[in-house]
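Q: I have 163 residues here and want to know how they pack in 3D. Can you give me a structure?
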Amino acid sequence: MNKLKIFLIILLDIIIQSTIVSRIPIFRVYSNLTIPIVVLLSIGFGAYVGSINGMIIGFVEDALFSPMMGLRALIYFTAGFIIGNSEAGINKEDPRSGMILTAFMTLYYTVVNYFVIYITKNKLDIGYLKGPIFIEMILNVVLYYILFKIFHKIFKFPKFKFS
């Protein structure tokens, strides 16, 4: 049952990200709905579910929106894997740790994206890292909190992980 719910969440993420979230700028900055979803899946279900679903969402987003195939998939996969494996100090019932991880993942996404753009010799607007990135971090953290409340009504997260 959780697989169907996760599939529907991924489908809704792609639809909402491409139609609503990417069209509404707040202070000339667009938020990224996928980042909080990957963080929530990684915290709630572990590294495997978070990284695989992050990679799937990334490939779909790359195919639809990006001129470079695989970059978002790589970023979401590695972030989901790292967050899913770092269970020490992460409380699944408290949104604060996920909010902090969402802020760091937003920064990670932007830095890796800019690094790859720099390597491929494309134009780079470094001014984004000076100010608007912080607005995007705040927007993504707010989205995380809203999604956290929704996810805890939809899913029963496992309490213990034996590995």
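Q: Anything worth noting?
A: The domain at 2-15+29-154 is CATH 1.10.1760 (Arp2/3 complex 21 kDa subunit ARPC3). The radius of gyration is 15 Å.
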